[in-house]
Design brief:
Low-confidence stretches of chain A: none
Number of domains of chain A: 3
Radius of gyration of chain A: 26 Å
Largest interface: A-B, 43 and 43 residues
Helix content of chain A: 40-55%
Largest sheet of chain A: 6 strands, parallel
CATH superfamily of the largest domain in chain A: Response regulator
Oligomer: homodimer
Shape of chain A: elongated
Mean pLDDT of chain A: 91
CATH topology of the largest domain in chain A: Rossmann fold
Order of helices and strands of chain A: HHHHEHEHEHEEHEHEHEHEHEHEE
Structural class of chain A: alpha/beta
CATH class of the largest domain in chain A: Alpha Beta
Chain lengths: 341, 341
DNA sequence: GTGAAAGCGCTAACAG
DNA sequence: CTGTTAGCGCTTTCAC
């Protein structure tokens, strides 16, 4: 009961050769239908399980794709993962998740780890402070395909799947303008990341389109965590000329800021309108409910995984569609509704 | 550049035997210091990377532990994972995470998957609707150690690490009683899980200790999601005799209920005091801030992982300490503070 | 259709 | 201290 069953055991039991067992198990079409059945039955009955290592060592393939995530704690990310998992398992691939907790060191370590595990391909989203792609070079060297999703390198030779962050930033900002805001603050994250840089550009473009000057002091680059939310709220309270609208690129941070301001007598949306980002559950629970930008995480995962698998199976048009950009949706709730309909 | 470097290549280059290379690479102490250095240098220079499969197939060990999580989306869970990761990597183990999204089918599939991947040991927390442990039997049969954490089987032959849910339930309820509540509602999850059953028992015991009768209609078994929160809040609104305190075993659901009630004119904590569970970030953002029960996720992860590794290394006292229970802390915020100090 | 045999990269006796 | 040798379980020519 302790010993593993191997194809040799099945071969012995059936008076066949290991080669035939192997062929039958792998659905080779040159084995007689009757034999195949017999083998499959025996395998089942004897409790046979492939030894993936032995298989991998021979084939050089692992049928596994690695997924590097920068953070697990978000709704968006779990949706993306769900999408990846779906497509992967539909195509017979396993996935192994490595999460870097927004930490570059960990990301580097994880990437090497996945490389050593010999994943067939890699899907990755960058940690907050990842600035170079040296650690992905091993994959390039061995010609193991890598596709980035969500947080990608601004200008890199890799394929990637992203949200249209520019458009998202533009629409969120324009929405605030349409609600009558003129002094719009933008609270965002590290703009060396495409994600935040593009949203910022969208914000600027929307202001420009409506002839509102961009003011440097209204653009706040922060860590987007709880402390940052409180700190920024405090700064707003101290401003002589407060903003009348704030676009924060993260719901959690937006919620913190908003609560803090409300607690200090600011009326939302009347004094200051708010728009967040992500459609996190928190946006529906907080009062006033937070307007936000939603994007299709599950589909992003599905698309990224499908492209990787296509490439693995040699059907890749990587060169033809190396950048895929997905469209966001603005969700308007009370926090930004100054005008009643 | 495309070909993998093997220990044979190094052996050839250095005019040594593969065995010596292997020994040097694995830090065996019977190899001469000078040779070891030479080998390590060469390996580095030639770009050698172990082939984990070849290694695993020989040793029968993968130096990998599988982690089954019922849900990733919580703060608590990511803390647990961080703890597991820390201990694992300190001991030279990799971890592979499989998440079941509260879905039994997926859990079953993940467990088999990890089994096939030949993890050396398993840490698992059960999905919402997992009721039997048939899928873990393969591990038992092959004597691969499994330790459950957080969500465990109420009465099972496995070791586990849990929160003292009874105590948590007791303290949360007693706190409400001390604040003057007498009609205390308990909103919780599936009580076939230890987690919820024990909290319920704690709730009942606290009521009993204060001579408050337990009323069946005040105990609500729900799914603890958003819809459940709204539905329960609606039911409360329709009650002739409303509760004056509610203990919800999940912060998110508590927040939803609370918001909904407040929106319908209920004053929190004056009319109804609230206590949640988990110390989720949301508990600090919502107004009034939510009292809650916090527990040490990171330590739970560390302890679970350490115990598993001890067992793997034959230092296990599994029989002696098969159940480890961790102590929760009640965090009092505005949502339950009826009495001012 | 099936079998025999070689070998993937590595480790673990057993010698020396 | 180092080398020789024999597999681990599987796939894959090449024969039959």
């Amino acid at each position: 009961m302790d010993k593993e069953i191997t194809i040799y055991d099945i071969a012995d039991a059936l008076k066949l050769s290991p080669a035939t067992i192997s062929r039958a198990l792998n659905g080779s079409d040159i084995v007689k239908e009757k034999t195949r059945k017999k083998v499959l039955d025996a395998a089942e009955k004897m409790g046979y399980r492939v030894n993936a290592f032995a298989k991998n060592i021979r084939t050089g393939k692992t049928k596994t794709i690695g997924v590097v995530v920068h953070e697990l704690r978000s709704n968006f990310m779990t949706s993306v993962l769900a999408g990846i998992e779906k497509v992967a398992s539909d195509n017979g691939y396993d996935i192994v998740i490595a999460h870097s907790s927004e930490n570059k060191e960990k990301e580097v370590q994880n990437v090497f780890n996945l490389f050593n595990k010999r994943v067939d391909g890699l899907l990755a989203s960058l940690a907050f402070d990842t600035a170079d792609w040296n650690h992905y070079k091993v994959f390039v060297d061995k010609k193991v395909p890598v596709i980035f999703y969500d947080r990608v390198f601004p200008r890199s030779p890799f394929s990637n799947v992203t949200l249209d962050n520019f458009k998202a930033g533009y629409e969120a900002t324009e929405h605030l303008i349409e609600q009558g805001c003129r002094r719009i603050m933008h609270v965002t994250g590290d703009i060396s990341k495409n994600v935040y840089l593009d949203r910022l550009d969208g914000y600027k473009a929307a202001l420009a389109a409506h002839d509102i000057p961009v003011q440097k002091e209204m653009i706040r680059v922060t860590t987007l965590n709880e402390e940052a939310g409180i700190a920024e709220a405090d700064k707003v309270l101290k401003m002589k000329a407060r903003p009348d609208g704030i676009f924060v690129t993260n719901d959690f941070c937006a919620a913190v800021m908003m609560s803090h301001l409300v607690e200090h007598g600011v009326k939302v949306p009347q004094d200051i309108a708010f728009v967040g980002f992500n459609d996190d559950p928190i946006s529906k629970i907080i009062r006033p409910k937070l307007s936000t930008v939603k994007y299709p995480g599950q589909q992003m995962g599905e698309i990224a995984a499908q492209r990787l698998i296509n490439e693995l199976q040699g059907q890749g048009n990587a060169a033809l569609e190396s950048q895929i950009v997905m469209r966001p949706t603005l969700i308007v709730r009370q926090s930004s509704t100054k005008k009643k309909n």
